[in-house]
Amino acid sequence: MISIIGIGSAGSAIAERFATTGNYDVYMLNHNVKENSEQEYKIESLDSPEECENNTPDLSEFFANVRDRVQVFVMGSSMSSNYVLGILQQISHKQIDLFYIKPDTELLTGMPRVVERVVFGVLQEYARSGMFRSLTLISNLDLETALGEVPIKTYYDTLNQSIFSTVHHLNYFEFSDPEIGQVSKPAAMNRIRTIGFLDIKRLKEKFLFPLDTPRELCYYICINDERLATEGGLHKKLVDMLKSKPKNAFLKMSYAIYGTPHADFGFVVAHTNVIQQEKVLDNE
Q1: At 206, phi and psi to the nearest 5?
Q2: Of the candidates 136, 170, 204, which is a domain's last residue?
Q3: For the chain, N or C: smaller number of CB within 10 Å?
Q4: Domain that holds residue 221
């Protein structure tokens, strides 16, 4: 079983969705918590990053039963993101997969903009140092584009549900045997990554973050069970599409094909060891 930790209101909103499956232990830390419990912990909403860092609570009792495998969700521009390092250092002996949700930075100003820039850079450096098993970058802007038309009234609910569903599927693939193929284990140095949705007909990727210099691409392809049982030549067709993709000496690809009772779908995970840089706006 995997423990899920949501830090801040946005991170907690994503984490809360994992509790609906019964397959995860869920912990939520944010300033909206009214009373501490086994699953929720109140962290103060403070005015500066320094105050957050200096007031990180002792969570040894709260995290006493956290599993060896932990997945953490945090929104980069939230003041709560300044608690991340202090919180994760208390479970640094665990295997930590950190999911960093990046807001539309072009519309950020003031302290949220400063916080996002600092946290975005610092977490990548810590990932490269080996503090995290992986750091997954997800841009709200790219996620919205990948999903298509998202209604305003359900905007965050739709994005949060998509993030939950995607991560939950990837967890399932990790612990399930494919029909054919095998996704390679990424090199230890390639700890920074993003996820993409797949158009199965063309194996076209819609990435959730514009990852610079991917080193490894891992394709998780889900095909309807009936197609798997009856459609001859399907494996060759899919492999040929993978082979036709642009590649170079530094880029590795692997794939696995799974059965599903539903319509075809899939994901691709791109890994790199390259620190991702902020895009500088013309008016900055």
Answers
A1: -120, 95
A2: 170
A3: C
A4: 190-272
Q: What is the dihedral angle through the alpha carbons of 183, 189, 194, 200, rounded to the nearest 10 degrees?
A: -20
Q: Specify the amino acid at residue 136.
A: T
Which CATH number covers residue 58?
A: 3.40.50.1440
pLDDT tens figures, 192-225: 999 999 999 999 999 999 999 999 999 999 999 9
pLDDT per residue as tens digits for the range 124-147: 999 999 999 999 999 999 999 999
Q: How far apart are CA 280 and CA 40, in angstroms?
A: 37
pTM for the whole thing?
0.95
Same domain, 232 and 138: no
Element (H, E) at 16: helix 8-18
Residue 200 lies in a domain: yes
Alpha-carbon gap, residue 188 to 272, rounded angstroms: 10
Q: Which amino acid is located at 274 in the chain?
A: V
> What CA–CA distance (Å, rounded) separates 124 from 137?
10
3-state percent helix, strand, coil for the chain, nearest multiple of 5 = 35, 25, 40
State the Cα angle at 116 between 15 and 195, rounded to 5°. 50
Task: Supply 198's token pair.
Answer: 């797949």
